[in-house]
From TrEMBL:
Keyword line: ATP-binding, Nodulation, Nucleotide-binding, Transport
A single GO molecular function term of this UniProt record: ATP binding
Record family assignment: Belongs to the ABC transporter superfamily.
Pfam families with a match to the protein in the record: ABC_tran
Organism field: Mucilaginibacter xinganensis
Protein name: ABC transporter domain-containing protein
Length: 259
């Protein structure tokens, strides 16, 4: 297998600008088949802009993005067909019934699923009793479950999740992690963004720390800790004498609070 074929996503030299402002600068990373890859960065780091470029919602200033062998510019339709996307705080029409939301997205993706199949999908996420509730009436965790199911209804090779678990309680978060891991079990790849070190350590096979639009480090969570554990700046910010991924993150991205 050549190198390219081992990657579900290749991002090479990506730059994204808003007017004169360079939000993403020369970002490169790969996501392998069957890998959960995390983009870790403070607010404004450029995570959502990176995902938007991969999705084709934003035109990059520079760089190449290959999804499942398809260039997102020259083979846009093929690239998009390989993608499932859960945007940050996705808001479906809150007034739609849950079953209608599923019908809508099955239709958009051309998935031939009748009502019985969609009810089965709801059963899998323990929401069979909520088919006729309005989406807006569901709890945050329930809404996230529906969002993930919709993002993966066409069984995409690459799933993009923008802060999938922010605001969820621990139970809902665990459940979502299991669903994300189930995507990996199918051999498909996941690219997610998160602020949560715990999430990065618990579910991500590899992570990239990104700040001010640049990739600072790419490694496994443990590899990242091992690499920086003796760095004086990391040791200086560590608490209780044990070096954590958060210590590495804070040392690499600085202590200043981002708005
Ligand atoms: N539509 C936009 N117009 C202008 N600036 C933007 C726009 N979207 C994002 N930005 C800026 O680009 C930078 C990166 O934003 P974003 O990709 O949303 O970061 P993150 O998702 O990591 O919080 C931030 O400084 C943000 O203010
Ligand atoms: Mg964001």
């Amino acid at each position: 297998m050549d190198k390219q074929a081992a990657y579900t996503l290749t991002v090479d030299g990506l730059s994204v600008s808003y007017g004169n402002f360079n939000a993403v600068q020369n970002v490169s990373f790969n996501v392998r088949k069957g890998e959960i890859f995390g983009l870790l960065g403070p607010n404004g780091a450029g995570k959502t802009s990176t995902l938007s470029a991969i999705e084709g919602l934003l035109k990059p200033q520079a760089g190449t993005i290959i999804v499942n062998g398809n260039n997102t510019v020259s083979k846009q339709l093929h690239a998009r067909a390989s993608l499932g996307v859960q945007l940050q705080s996705t808001s479906f029409q809150a007034e739609l019934f849950v079953i209608e939301v599923l019908q809508l997205y099955a239709g958009i993706y051309g998935v031939p699923a009748g009502k019985a199949e969609l009810m089965n999908i709801l059963k899998e996420i323990n929401l069979e009793g909520s088919a006729n509730k309005k989406f807006g009436e569901l709890s945050g965790g329930q809404q996230q479950r529906v969002s993930l199911v919709i993002a993966t209804i066409h069984n995409p090779r690459l799933v993009l999740l923008d802060e999938p678990t922010s605001g969820l309680d621990p139970q809902s978060r665990r459940q979502l992690w299991e669903r994300i891991e189930a995507i990996r079990e199918r051999g498909h790849a996941v690219l997610l963004t998160t602020h949560s070190m715990e999430e990065a350590e618990s579910v991500c096979d590899r992570i990239a720390i990104i700040d001010h639009g640049k990739v600072i480090a790419v490694d496994t969570p443990q590899g990242m800790i091992d690499k920086y554990k003796d760095d004086p700046e990391v040791v200086a910010v560590s608490r209780r004498g044990r070096i954590t991924l958060e210590d590495v993150f804070i040392a690499l991205t600085g202590k200043a609070i981002r708005s």
